[in-house]
Design goal:
single chain; Rossmann fold; 5-stranded parallel beta sheet; 9 helices; 5 strands; globular
């Protein structure tokens, strides 16, 4: 049974919504579960990433990778402890996002996987990829807020990102990936989540 579950997708795919739904679903059934999200905007590393995303300054792709990885390394022992305690760990994005976003910007997958290995970033049991079009991505984000970050506002980037994710999924990089139709209603997407996790 999968216990470390990651929700992935391009911006606006619904990872926050579905990860919260899964947490509530498990807790309602008295199944111990914890949820974590990346970037962790509540901590200093996440705040720094937020400023980068909102174009306060630029970083090279290698440096971006290090900051995103540092955010997860910071939580490494907590994640390991939760898993040791037999809890479900649900992540709204994870190192798989770094593989996609920084990979697209030119950082080799082999280099990123070496980084994950070097710093013992825990591998998820399963990655649920919520597939949406770049058009849907931008429409959803514009409904949420007017101040789109450098990724959310770049349709060409989102198109290329979708293709890059497809390759990660095809190669099953870093975990076992499943593709869900993120264009459907929130309820219908969650039914897919339960089916893949064999909770229906």
């Amino acid at each position: 049974m999968a216990r470390f579950v990651v929700f992935e997708g391009i911006d606006g795919a619904g990872t926050e919504e579905q990860s919260k739904r899964l947490l509530d679903f498990l807790r309602e059934r008295k199944i111990p579960a914890e949820r974590i999200e990346y970037p962790g905007y509540h901590n200093p590393i996440g705040k720094f990433i937020h400023e980068y995303l909102h174009k306060k300054f630029d970083l090279t792709p290698d440096v971006q990778s290090l900051f995103y990885a540092a955010d997860m390394i910071n939580d490494r022992e907590k994640i390991k402890l939760w898993l040791k305690q037999g809890k479900y760990v649900i992540a709204d994005r994870y190192f798989t996002s770094t593989l996609a976003y920084q990979g697209l910007r030119g950082v080799k997958t082999k280099k990123l996987l070496k980084l994950a290995e070097l710093f013992e970033i825990p591998k998820p049991d399963i990655v649920l990829f919520l597939k949406v079009s770049p058009e849907t991505s931008m429409q959803r984000k514009l409904k949420e807020k007017t101040d789109l970050d450098r990724n959310e506002s770049d349709k060409t980037f989102l198109e290329k990102l979708s293709v890059f994710y497809e390759q990660l999924i095809k190669d099953q990089v870093f975990s076992q990936w499943y593709v869900l139709d993120g264009e459907k209603s929130k309820e219908e997407v969650f039914e897919q989540v339960k089916k893949v996790l064999r909770m229906d």
